[in-house]
TrEMBL record:
Protein name, per record: Bro-N domain-containing protein
Pfam families listed in its UniProt record: Bro-N
InterPro entries, alphabetized: BRO_N_domain
PROSITE patterns the record matches: BRO_N
Every Bro-N domain range: 16-132
Length: 332
């Protein structure tokens, strides 16, 4: 970029309209700005295009902004011996435009919000063509300090645009605040609902646990009843509610005769084990001993005992320490 041909002392320079207000009225937004030592202003092209609705910033620059009014950030700052600003997305390769380039983009914008500014620009041009110059009216109140620059009144179109934009922004702020209040209320309501749901789920879980505990207690009680029922068999003809008489060898053998038709071998074994079961309540005798007492083989004795078990005459209780089987009466 060429070195600016006209540089003025920034301390003596005075702008008739504050550049921030000027750009705000033109674009409808506060965009980033760099002000050079000579007082020239440069703006990120992407910021201006975004606020004006230009979706393709490269095409917008190529179509509406001449080369002398657009540059790279590094080129502009380097011309003044300055470095690239840090932060806020400033990059060395950032495209920036001058104030004239910004006005050219505004004139190419079709947004209704830009209309008042463009009408004022047209008025300025028409006034210059007709009268040869255009000047702002002086403000009613001037600075009291000696040597202070003259204060000018902002053009009505620019002032009205700024007032309208500020009113629009205030409405947006109010709508945003109302939306935030509504969102907070909804979040609180959702939180209350979630807490109530959680409490209901916890109560339901506690009820399920209590029901499970009751069911487990009922199962244990039924198991105890079943165990007792397996060991308690009332003799035939005994009325419920009266204690059953103590079994005798004769009553046991008579009951066994009713339960099954036995062969001679089975009855021989029954005659040997019945007295022992009645007297001691259990039979702990090796099969070899029973075989010796009955004259039967060990295998045949085992088959006879299995037959007596199958017909619920006796039942097994495992084995003794010496390995002999243990039998008891089925109702004992």
């Amino acid at each position: 970029m060429k070195e600016p041909s006209k540089r003025q002392n920034s301390a003596a320079r005075h702008e008739a309209i504050d550049v921030s207000d000027f750009v705000y009225a033109a674009t409808g937004a506060r965009v980033r700005r760099l002000t050079m030592p000579d007082g020239s202003h440069w703006f990120p092209a992407v910021d201006v295009c975004k606020e004006l609705g230009h979706t393709n910033s490269r095409k917008a620059l190529a179509d509406h902004v001449p080369d002398e009014h657009r540059e790279m950030l590094e080129t502009v700052t380097g011309g003044y011996g300055l470095g690239v600003p840090a932060g806020r997305g400033w990059r060395r390769d950032l495209h920036i435009i001058s104030l004239q380039g910004l006005i050219l983009l505004v004139n190419a914008c079709t947004k209704p919000a830009c209309a008042p500014f463009k009408q004022w620009v047209a008025e300025v041009i028409e006034t210059v063509q007709r009268e040869g110059s255009y000047s702002l009216d002086e403000a009613e109140v001037q600075p009291a300090e000696a040597g202070a620059p003259i204060a000018y009144a902002m053009p009505d179109q620019v002032a009205e645009a700024i007032v309208r934009l500020e009113a629009h922004n205030l409405r947006l702020d109010e709508e945003l605040a109302e939306g935030q209040r509504t969102s907070i209320a909804l979040q609180r309501e959702m939180l209350t609902t979630q807490q109530a749901t959680l409490a209901t789920q916890q109560a339901g879980l506690a009820a399920q646990q209590a029901t499970l505990a009751v069911q487990q207690a009922m199962v244990r009680a039924l198991e105890r009843i079943a165990d007792r029922f397996d060991t308690l068999v009332l003799p035939r003809g005994t009325a419920v509610g009266h204690p059953a008489p103590a079994p005798t060898t004769e009553s046991v053998l008579a009951d066994w005769r009713q339960r099954l038709s036995v062969t001679e071998d089975v009855w021989t074994v029954a005659l040997v084990i019945a007295p022992v079961l009645v007297a001691t309540g259990e039979l702990r005798e090796p099969l070899e001993s029973i075989a010796a007492r009955t004259g039967l083989s060990v295998r045949r004795v085992n088959e006879c005992l299995r037959l007596l078990r199958r017909h619920a005459c006796i039942r097994s209780r495992g084995g003794s320490e010496d390995g002999a089987p243990v039998y008891v009466l089925h109702h004992a």
